[in-house]
Amino acid sequence: MYTQSFSVQDAPGLKAVDSAAAEDPKLMEQFQARIDADGRIEPQEWMPEAYRKTLIRQISQHAHSEIVGMLPEGNWILRAPSLKRKCILIAKVQDEGGHGLYLYSAAETLGTSRAEMLEALHSGKAKYSSIFNYPTLNWADIGVIGWLVDGAAIMNQIPLCRCSYGPYARAMVRVCKEESFHQRQGYEALLTMMKGSKEQRDMVQDAVNRWWWKCLAMFGPSDADSLHSSQGMKWGIKRISNDDLRQKFIDATVPQANVLGITLPDPKLKWNEARGHYDHGEIDWKEFWETVNGNGPCNKERLATRVKAHKDGQWVRDAAMAYAKKQEQRRMKEAA
Ligand code: BYC
After folding, report:
1. Distance between CA 285 and CA 282 in Å, rounded?
2. Closest Cα partner for 96 from 122, 126, 118, 74?
3. Per-residue pLDDT of the chain (336 residues; tens, 9 = 90+)
4. What's the gap between Cα 208 and its chain centre?
5. For atom 34 of ligand 1, which residue has the closest CA?
6. Rounded to two decimals, what is the model's pTM?
7. Closest residue (by CA) to atom 16 of ligand 1?
């Protein structure tokens, strides 16, 4: 769907966004009316500069999360306990790489380039999901990432299939289908371990204890502290708030934890009949912001691995460019 990226500024026939037009009240009114009527905005259409920038920020952060998210699981491909688990894990990690590619392409339709986005990631300027800065200590962590991390990701990403920006919304449809397989394979791996020895069951419980709170923080700061939520909701980029998504995730996950036979590490987790939701304890926001700001347990390692992979892959990009150039020259010669 997104094999042809283009720059909004450079593409002929497309109107570059200028800040004077961005402030034109009539255009703004038409734009908001389109969004309020649940319309989609496409790359060649007028959009406020701030809408474009917000989308570039969110989609590129999302893309970075997908490719950095390959690293903690990638570490376990050689250590998967069976050929079946290894095949599943390879397929999952490969899917995450694919998600990164659709998302970088969707962001490129807004006038940024792959090189700019990667430079921002590699220099530490851009954010990516906090969750990938924690270590994967044993095989149960891989099951828990599938069950909880991908489970949280689906909860956050299903509403993005209705995002007002067309290319992002369409990319999310396929991403969500694949995330659903990721979540199920994780849960199934944990169910298998829970039917095994006491040591295996303890490993699952230990992994859940370490990941639960970090997964709740994935949804972002509470609504009262969320910088971008109200504008993002007005523009139809976000459809459900951070806290509401977090609550939906908790409500959906508690029964799954019961079937699995593990305890979620929150003494305040309790069904509230009046609210029709589970009450829960407070997230450690100080720890979350430390991690988001580069000081989590694995931030430096993740970034170093990513930068090395990019450098090591330079010859592949050079070879692909040389091949494309050769093909183009051949076509020109044949056409002449
Ligand atoms: N980690 O005003 P807020 C995956 C930042 S991939 C780090 O609420 P917004 C998977 C936020 O960026 C999962 N930073 O922001 C892959 C903002 O900072 P800036 C990734 C976070 O944008 C491989 C500031 O905090 N999913 O699942 O309205 C294997 C204030 O926040 C985090 C997406 O990216 C965080 N957790 O809402 C397995 C989904 N949370 O930009 C699985 C798309 C917040 O002002 N993104 N921040 O410097 C979104 O839905 C939204 O951007 C967020 C944040 C809900 C994440």
Report:
1. 8
2. 74
3. 333 333 333 333 334 344 445 568 999 999 999 999 999 999 999 999 999 999 999 999 999 999 999 999 999 999 999 999 999 999 999 999 999 999 999 999 999 999 999 999 999 999 999 999 999 999 999 999 999 999 999 999 999 999 999 999 999 999 999 999 999 999 999 999 999 999 999 999 999 999 999 999 999 999 999 999 999 999 999 999 999 999 999 999 999 999 999 999 999 999 999 999 999 999 999 999 999 999 999 999 999 999 999 999 999 999 999 999 999 999 999 998
4. 21
5. 62
6. 0.92
7. 66
Which residue owns the Cα nearest ligand 1 atom 11? 220
Amino acid identity, residue 251? D
Residue tagged 């806290």 (tokens): 243
Q: Count of alpha carbons within 13 Å of 157, Cβ hemisphere only? A: 26
Strand partners, 165: 41
Question: What number of other Cβ atoms are within 10 A of residue 93's Cβ?
Answer: 19
CA-based torsion, 216, 217, 220, 225: positive or negative: positive
Task: Give 103 Cα–ligand 1 centroid separation in angstroms.
Answer: 14
Residue 270, SS3 per DSSP: strand
